[in-house]
Amino acid sequence: MKLGDRLQALADFVPQGSRVADIGTDHGYLAVELVKSGKAKFVVASDKNAGPYEAAVRTVRENGLTDESISVRLGDGLKSLKPGEVDTVCIAGMGGTLMVEILEGSPEVVEKLETLVLQPQSAAADLRRWLYRKRWYIEDESLALDDSRIYEIIKAKRGRRKMPEPLLLEIGPVLWQKKPPLLRHHIEALLFQERRVAAGMEKSEAAKKSKKYQAVIRHIKELGEHLSW
Question: Among residues of the chain, what percentage have pLDDT more than 70?
């Protein structure tokens, strides 16, 4: 079984020898890869919906793995975990706002974690901001191209660090530092979204005169300036 580039990027960020929870596991592919590659000692593969839960059970069984290495659970967020049961949590394929809700919903579990590996589909800046406010910091980031879409993958560790400036929270502070090959495409995607917002506002004279419109235009200019390095 070969993971797609998006899930492989998550697997790459999991520390060697970890005890991992894969939240929103879908088919359990990440959990199986982490165990079979020797990256993780033990994985909890959890999903709140019966369909993905049953698919994960089948994937684990088809790969000849047992409950001792992968525990497939039906549960909402981190509520299927006991505090200290795992040291690393992977969450992928959902919005950054929902990720924050999941992490805030189980503080006793999060308190015992050492590493978060996150792949937000949206609101990545809000997620990064939350991490720094809650005494996490971004140790590493990467970009993955899968099915013609660019995905952001964030590896966070526990510890207090200075909050990055707002634009870097959006681009990704470590991505900006590392400047991987996909970074230009990533910034262009952010620009496209902001230009759509501006175009929508330009249909209204009142909106064009608003402070919000001026802020969007400034933001477009700042993102554009980060395309040339």
Answer: 100
pLDDT at 1 over 90: no
Express each pLDDT in 82-106 by its tens digit.
Answer: 999 999 999 999 999 999 999 999 9
* Residue 92 to residue 78: CA distance in whole angstroms: 13
Residue 155 to residue 12: CA distance in whole angstroms? 10
CA-to-CA dists, residue 88 to 158, 180, 219, 228, angstroms: 11, 25, 35, 36
Cβ atoms 47, 53 nearer than 8 A: yes
Q: Please compute the mean of the pLDDT values over residues 134-159 and round it to a whole number.
A: 97
The neighbouring-strand residues paired with 124 are: none
Measured between alpha carbons, how far is 159 from 137 in angstroms, rounded to an integer? 6
- Is the pTM above the cut of 0.85? yes
The string of DSSP letters for 27-45 reads TSHHHHHHHHTTSEEEEEE
What's the CA gap between 160 and 136, in Å, rounded?
A: 6
Cα(46)–Cα(217) distance, integer angstroms: 42
DSSP string, 112-174: T-SEEEEEESS-HHHHHHHHHHTTEEEEEEEEEEETTEEEEEEEEEES--PPPPHHHHHH-HH
Q: In what order do the strands lie in the sheet with 70-74?
A: 70-74, 40-47, 18-23, 88-94, 115-120, 149-158, 136-146
